[in-house]
Structure formats: structure tokens, C-alpha cells
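Sequence in, structure out.
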Amino acid sequence: MPSVPWSTHINFASALLLHSCTTILMKETLNWLEIARRLLTQRRKAQQKSRAGPGITCAVETSAILDAYTSVFSGDINGELAELYFTNTGLILLAVSLASSVAMNLLLSSVALNTIVAGTFGLVFAASLAVGHAKYTLPFMALRRAGRFIWSDTPFVNFFSLIYIATVLKGQSTLRLQDYVTFRSIAVFELIFMKAKLAAADVDTQISLMRRLIESERVIIHAVR
């Protein structure tokens, strides 16, 4: 069984951004698959009721709401809760996205990796345009919001990365696979720590976070009873 080529040099730009991009793509794919599942279920129920009798109408019995913790299409128009988007991502999904990032760095070309990063940025930018206010500043605010999601690392992770590059890599611009895994593992551990910190926060902080979360909700499917 071949060993992992830890010393392989990888794409520097993708190393900084690819983990965030794969996490976003996976979360959004799961979100829209769930929405599609609910719509198909609703359609199936409507067909069953229509067969039961011509005079029977079928109201929309399902709903779908996206918030800042779950989707870039939420009502968080400024991206202020972008860090919590990743903090509230499950550990399994973070681990899968990290493993996918490592595999992509090994198997894909730099052009393909940069295309994934650019495509993800375009997706978040389009989402930011869709949820933002129609003002002349909208394109600039959408760019700013997209940048917050794509460059999701906290100041602590950025500081650790600079220290690591200065001391371990001796200022070199090339990055090895083992360096990439080290960077991203630190980022994942910090997200776990922040999640635990939020869970143990005082009541006032929890209420404030809940209010901001509710304000970020965006209804995609509205149930009609």
C-alpha cells in the first residue's frame, strides 16, 4: 500500500482557500438536495390527493428556511455571521471536506484547483447579490461578503500560519502537503473550541446569538395550512 506523499508541493492559493470552498460546496449541495426532496415529497402528496377526488385541493404542507448557520443564501446580507457558518458545521462534514481538499490537492492540476476556488467565490458572490439590498453599493458589498466566506480563517489561524511559515518553512512560498494538513487541522480544532465556547456562553450571549440567527432566516418554501 503506497504511503501518503507528505512532501509533495501543492498549490499555495488553493491550500489557503480550498478547505473553505469544499465545505461551502458540500453544505450548499446538502441544503438544496433537502429542499428538492421536500418539494418532491409535496408533489407526490399532491398527486395522491388529486387522484382521490377532483375537488380536493392540496396546500403547501412543507417549508424550508435557510439561516446564517446553514447557508450562504441566508438573510445575513453583510456576512457578519460567516465565521459561525463554519463554527456550526458538523465535525464529520469538516473532516470529509478536509480529506476531500487533501485528495484534490494531490490529484487535480493547479488550473482545476483554481477553477474550484473561483467557482465557489462566484457562487457566494451570486448568493450575496441575491440576498442583498438593491443599492448602488450592492456589488461591492457582495464582493466583501463573498470574501468573508471564502477567506474564513480567524485572526488566530492567520497568525499561526505566519509563524509557521516564518519558523518552519523559513519564509519559503512553496507549501508541502504536510504543511497544508497542519494548517487546516489547527483551523478545525479552533472551530471545535469556538463551538464549545459558544455552547458554554452566558444566557445573554445565547439570546443575542439566537436573535441574530432568527434575523438571518430566509424563507425558501412557505407552508400554507
